[in-house]
Amino acid sequence: MGTLLEVKALRTHFFTQEGVVKAVDGVSYDLQEGEILGLVGESGCGKSVSALSLMRLVQDPPGRIVGGQIMFEGRDLLGISEDEMRAIRGNRMAMIFQEPMTSLNPVLTINRQLSEALELHMKMDKNAARRRSVELLDMVGIPEASRRIDDYPHQFSGGMRQRVMIAMGMSCNPKLLLADEPTTALDVTIQAQVLEIVKKLTSEMGTAVIIITHNLGVVARYADRVNVMYAGRIIERATARGLYAEPSHPYTIGLLNSVPRLDEALKEKLDPIEGLPPDLVNLPQGCPFVPRCKFYRENKDKLQKCVETYPPLFMVGKDHMAACWVNVQTGGVRE
């Protein structure tokens, strides 16, 4: 497999009356062809903005990509024209947006919304686009697709609308699919069905996927590698197996401890991360996780550098990096 996507020092800022919001602040990672990458973190950490930046869909004003590179199939997407980007968007690179209840246009039929990309990118006529749209709805499990295709979004349930969004994203056989919270507002059974559909379609078509989610269970089951984001930066990256076996950043450990597990004895209550994410307008000089970090609270005398200098990504294992001055496995301090 070759490298499909390489993001280098991506920075996306929002210019507001309160100041500059550094929503994405120096994010770098790569994605291989056919790979599934999980992007996890709390709300407000920059996951969705980083995905919108890849598609060049950040609204300006107030948002703007102020630095970095997005190398997709060997081309820097930040250096091409809007017409060239429009030819890629929805074709070679597609996105399943958040909130299936509101992402579809309520005044257009499902057929019109599915056919538009096929007519534009695949140069199909209306009849061919309709036949392909019916096939896509069949693929994602919409019953009686040939009849339902002329319905409007309000005639579909939340789970069915999400399936339509997946069909729309996969319609032109993209090389990269961005799935932003693909199971939001869906019940657990429908979540599993939707994710299995994504997994099946991507394995059959060889599409690479970036799954953006809060759900660490989704990441454990479906992702090959994981990037953990906090305050606009990637603070840990690893294979899914490596991340769950040996989390190496206090924030990642906190996320995992916040999730109920079936393989452990029943506890009275979960162990949530205390405090709130930092204000992205006034980020601290050092590590932004310091106010919430129990390792820092327990070792303040040894960890002055935590409040003075942002930690780089240290190699902590094979294909495993973490941006933390503390070796959480040994309790030692990195230089």
What's the gist of this structure?
The chain is of the alpha/beta class and 335 residues long. It has two domains: 1-92 and 175-274, 3-Layer(aba) Sandwich (Rossmann fold); 102-171, no CATH class. Helix content is 33%, strand content 23%.
Structural notes for this entry:
The model has no long low-confidence stretch (mean pLDDT 89). The protein is globular. It has helices at residues 47-54, 82-88, 100-103, 110-121, 126-139, 145-148, 158-170, 188-205, 216-222, 240-245, 250-257, 294-298, 305-308, and strands at residues 3-15, 20-32, 36-40, 63-72, 75-76, 93-96, 176-180, 208-213, 225-230, 233-239, 314-317, 320-322. The protein is built from 13 helices and 12 strands. An 8-stranded mixed sheet has the order 6-7-8-3-9-10-12-11, with helices on both faces. Strands 2-1-4-5 form a 4-stranded antiparallel sheet, with helices on one face. It has 2 domains: 1-92 and 175-274, Rossmann fold; 102-171, no CATH class. Helix 4 crosses helix 5. It is of the alpha/beta class and 335 residues long.
Comma- or semicolon-separated keywords:
335 residues, 13 helices, 2 domains, 4-stranded antiparallel beta sheet, 8-stranded mixed beta sheet, Rossmann fold, globular
Write the layout of secondary structure elements.
Layout: E1 3-15, E2 20-32, E3 36-40, H1 47-54, E4 63-72, E5 75-76, H2 82-88, E6 93-96, H3 100-103, H4 110-121, H5 126-139, H6 145-148, H7 158-170, E7 176-180, H8 188-205, E8 208-213, H9 216-222, E9 225-230, E10 233-239, H10 240-245, H11 250-257, H12 294-298, H13 305-308, E11 314-317, E12 320-322
Parallel strand pairs: 3-8, 3-9, 6-7, 7-8
Antiparallel strand pairs: 1-2, 1-4, 4-5, 9-10, 10-12, 11-12
